[in-house]
TrEMBL record, chain A:
<protein>
    <submittedName>
        <fullName>Acyl-CoA dehydrogenase</fullName>
        <ecNumber>1.3.99.-</ecNumber>
    </submittedName>
</protein>
<dbReference type="GO" id="GO:0050660">
    <property type="term" value="F:flavin adenine dinucleotide binding"/>
</dbReference>
<dbReference type="InterPro" id="IPR052161">
    <property type="entry name" value="Mycobact_Acyl-CoA_DH"/>
</dbReference>
<feature type="domain" description="Acyl-CoA dehydrogenase/oxidase C-terminal">
    <location>
        <begin position="221"/>
        <end position="378"/>
    </location>
</feature>
<keyword id="KW-0560">Oxidoreductase</keyword>
<dbReference type="Pfam" id="PF02770">
    <property type="entry name" value="Acyl-CoA_dh_M"/>
</dbReference>
<comment type="similarity">
    <text>Belongs to the acyl-CoA dehydrogenase family.</text>
</comment>
<dbReference type="Pfam" id="PF02771">
    <property type="entry name" value="Acyl-CoA_dh_N"/>
</dbReference>
<feature type="domain" description="Acyl-CoA oxidase/dehydrogenase middle">
    <location>
        <begin position="115"/>
        <end position="199"/>
    </location>
</feature>
Automatic annotation (TrEMBL), chain B:
<dbReference type="InterPro" id="IPR009100">
    <property type="entry name" value="AcylCoA_DH/oxidase_NM_dom_sf"/>
</dbReference>
<dbReference type="InterPro" id="IPR009075">
    <property type="entry name" value="AcylCo_DH/oxidase_C"/>
</dbReference>
<feature type="domain" description="Acyl-CoA dehydrogenase/oxidase N-terminal">
    <location>
        <begin position="10"/>
        <end position="106"/>
    </location>
</feature>
<keyword id="KW-0560">Oxidoreductase</keyword>
<protein>
    <submittedName>
        <fullName>Acyl-CoA dehydrogenase</fullName>
        <ecNumber>1.3.99.-</ecNumber>
    </submittedName>
</protein>
<comment type="similarity">
    <text>Belongs to the acyl-CoA dehydrogenase family.</text>
</comment>
<dbReference type="GO" id="GO:0050660">
    <property type="term" value="F:flavin adenine dinucleotide binding"/>
</dbReference>
<dbReference type="InterPro" id="IPR013786">
    <property type="entry name" value="AcylCoA_DH/ox_N"/>
</dbReference>
<dbReference type="Pfam" id="PF00441">
    <property type="entry name" value="Acyl-CoA_dh_1"/>
</dbReference>
Length: 397, 351
């Protein structure tokens, strides 16, 4: 049997052969997904035996399309975004063979949902300041601390976790990366209600939580490097599809403008057209980024896209409320919900306005992003650092 | 969706042009040139003509390079970076686009026909300063860009577009003092001047729309160069014991400016692609490009002046050349506000 990774034609054939044996209509959804993983057709760029075939990442799209065209079930309904986008590539890069075998398959099929225990009340943008302690305890670790902004924690079976294992060295050097079992009795998850009324996130309290040493990812003290790899993977996960004109929030407001001539005023017209042009510029920037990725030469424009997306969502949703006037005073529902996904389109304009406030905070605040652009892309001097050579335990908190 | 990246040919073209401009269009020479009577840098224009870059979108059969507005757009980026004092916009863009639309490509081969409309004219506006009477033109056209370089003036009058010899009896071209010292403006007075009808006013609209799409590339070049100069400066200028570029007040503004420039590149590429392929979306693409790039170029030049401190306010520093070009370009071929207003009709968002 050849060990060379398959090309596009080879993958097409494998998918058709697979579908011939596993009839999507007659196979249990989970069984189908497990078999697809075992056939190397889950994420084709992963190694053989781990859901892939070592093929180029770009060929995954075609495989997904063939499965979708055959009416096959996907793992999409599990919405395991953190597992797929962050945990899996980190496990692949830093995990032991046992860890890869244990975790990747049920992660991909969605049988085990993952969450991410990075941010803390005192360590958000300054992730390396985190205070959650992991102390060596026989053949494992005991973890104490508090994490925050944890999406999916209430449904997750496992978490990727960064904790401090050596407070006596400067902050970036004393951290270690673990896989945390969310069913451990030392793990308590509490919903964190946000200004929209719903609770997308959780607080997670770790009180004497136990983690076996086999669940450590990477070397002791190497947690910062592993965490950075995770965050890089998060940033690579950019949508591969071309967005249509008026595809985002601007489409909602443009439709409202067209439907309700009675609401129009000259000032709001000027504002709408300004935002329409800005949204179109942002869309073309995203499209250019997509073309760069497809050509194998990704540029740094993702940072521009994130900054623009946050600002546009906030300005457009604000305009929508002003345009609605009296109806803008209403809200749809303050009861606490636990949505699995942010849904801008099926909620009220008031919800959109409030939820958009999170866009310039989540996934890195716009201010931190500007620092990153200024320092890493423009090469401007770094902010003066007071904490670089100071042991973590001696830093002001 | 059209290709928003640069082709290898375009990258080569850019490299060649940048090398030429570094040697033949250094900013001290540009500054010195503004204090002469020469309406443009004739030596540089000749070298650009020899390179073939002034006739890129003209078919080979008509004596041009047989390329497209995409490549011409790259040329404009580089000319903008250098605030080059050459009549590329008036002749190689507006003049050529009018001639191509009028079906007279042979006249476009040497890029010496200039579209005689006020530079502020937005696409869709009908210039009405000139009256046609039996093949003779009478009237005044103010603030024409690059008229001093014209071997032929392309004059809209009534429902036609006319070719006029600027040396003919009854034609007077008078240079006016312009805010932009590197793109000269003239008033053109016609008194029963002999003219030859070559097309209708549709050619004027086409030229102005293509011009707006291409002008955005020049604005991108200006913005990009101003950002680079500024970044270079704030990294090395120390105040209070730190490079001023380490202050967040400046870093954040420069990061936002970088993001605006990155966006400008995408809209410029889209607009150039639409112009090159005759895409029916060109009017929208041009309007978006002007709405975005006018503001970005002006902001970049203004930040360049401000972040250079006192040095940025002096005659000896090139920042003012970029500021003057950027602000003038933001009024050229329709202000950003006019382009946004045009979008209202184009995308169905009426007042």
């Amino acid at each position: 049997m050849s060990t060379a990774p398959p090309d596009e034609a080879g993958l097409d054939r494998r998918v058709r052969d697979f579908l011939a044996v596993h009839d999507p209509a007659a196979t249990d959804r989970r069984d189908f997904l497990r078999a697809r993983f075992d056939a190397g057709l889950a994420w084709v760029h992963y190694p053989p035996g781990l859901g892939g075939l070592g093929a180029p990442r770009a060929l995954q799209d075609g495989v997904d399309r063939l499965f979708a065209a055959a009416g096959a079930p996907g793992n999409r309904p599990e919405r395991n975004a953190i597992g797929l986008g962050m945990a899996a590539p980190t496990i692949l890069a830093f995990g032991t063979d046992e860890q890869k075998k244990r975790f990747l398959r049920p992660l991909w099929t969605g049988e085990e949902v993952w969450c991410q225990l990075f941010s803390e009340p005192g360590a958000g943008s300054d992730l390396a300041a985190l205070a959650t302690r992991a102390v060596r305890d026989g053949d494992g670790w005991t973890v104490d601390g508090q994490k925050v902004w944890t999406s999916m924690a209430h449904e997750a079976r496992f978490a990727i976790l960064v904790a401090r294992t050596d407070p006596g060295v400067p902050k970036h050097r004393g951290m270690t990366y673990f896989v945390c079992d969310m069913t451990d009795p030392g793990v308590e998850v509490r919903p964190l209600r946000q200004m929209t009324g719903e609770a997308e996130f959780n607080e997670v309290f770790l009180t004497g939580a136990r983690i076996p040493d086999e669940h450590r990812l990477g070397a002791v003290g190497d947690g910062w490097r592993v965490a950075m790899a995770t965050l890089m993977n998060e940033r690579v996960a950019i949508g591969g599809h071309a967005a249509p004109r008026e595809g985002g929030m601007i489409g909602v407001v443009a439709a409202l403008w067209r439907d309700r001539p009675d609401l129009r005023t000259p000032g709001l017209h000027a504002e709408l057209l300004r935002l329409w042009a800005d949204a179109e510029a942002a869309r073309l920037t995203g499209e250019r980024l997509r073309q760069q990725l497809a050509a194998g030469a990704p540029g740094p424009e993702g940072s521009a896209a994130k900054l623009a997306f946050a600002r546009l969502n906030q300005e457009i949703s604000g305009l929508e409320l002003e345009l609605l006037a009296e109806d803008g005073l209403r809200y749809d529902d303050w009861t606490m919900r636990r949505p699995a996904e942010v849904d801008f389109t099926r909620r009220s304009p008031g919800y959109r306005y409030l939820r958009a406030k999170g866009n310039s905070i989540e996934g890195g605040t716009s201010e931190i992003l500007r620092n990153i652009v200024a320092e890493r892309i423009l090469g401007l001097p770094a902010e003066p650092r007071a904490d670089k050579d100071v042991p973590w335990k001696d830093l002001p908190k | 969706m059209s290709d928003l990246l640069y082709s290898d040919v375009e990258d080569d073209l850019r490299a060649g042009l940048r090398a030429l401009l570094a040697e033949a269009c250094a900013w001290p020479d540009v500054l010195a040139g503004t204090e002469t009577d020469a309406p443009y840098d004739a030596a540089l224009w000749e070298r650009l003509t020899e390179m073939g870059v002034t006739a890129l979108p003209v078919p080979e059969a008509a004596g041009g390079a047989g390329a497209s507005w995409r490549e011409a757009s790259v040329v404009l980026e580089e000319l903008g970076r250098a605030v080059a004092p050459v009549p590329f916009l008036g002749a190689a863009v507006l003049g050529t686009a009018a001639l191509l639309a009028a079906g007279a490509p042979d006249l476009a081969a040497d890029a010496s026909a200039v579209l005689a409309v006020p530079l502020s004219t937005p696409p869709g506006a009908a210039p009405d300063g000139v009256r046609a009477d039996g093949g003779r033109l009478t009237g005044v056209i103010t603030a024409v860009a690059d008229a001093g370089a014209a071997a032929t003036l392309l004059v809209p009058a009534g429902d036609g577009l006319y070719a006029v010899d600027p040396g003919a009896d009854g034609v007077r071209v008078t240079e006016v003092v312009a805010l932009d010292m590197t793109r000269r403006l003239s008033d053109v007075a016609l008194a029963d001047a002999p003219a030859r009808r070559i097309g209708d006013t549709g050619a004027v609209t086409a030229a102005l729309t293509t011009g707006a799409a291409l002008l955005a590339a020049e604005q991108l070049g200006i913005a990009e160069r101003c950002l680079e100069m500024t970044v270079e400066y704030v990294r090395t200028r120390y105040q209070f014991g730190r490079p001023v570029g380490s202050y967040q007040a400046l870093k954040h503004r420069l990061a936002d400016l970088w993001a605006a420039v990155a966006q400008a590149r995408a809209v410029v590429r889209y607009a150039a692609g639409c112009a090159a392929s005759g895409d029916p979306d060109l009017p929208v693409a041009a309007a978006v490009a002007q709405a975005h790039c006018s503001a970005t170029a002006v902001r970049a030049a203004e930040e360049c002046v401000q972040m250079h401190g006192g040095i940025g306010f002096t005659w000896e520093h090139p920042a003012h050349l970029y500021l003057k070009r950027a602000k003038s370009a933001s009024l050229a071929l329709g202000t950003a506000d006019r382009h946004r207003a045009a979008l209202a009709g184009l995308v169905g968002l009426p007042a």
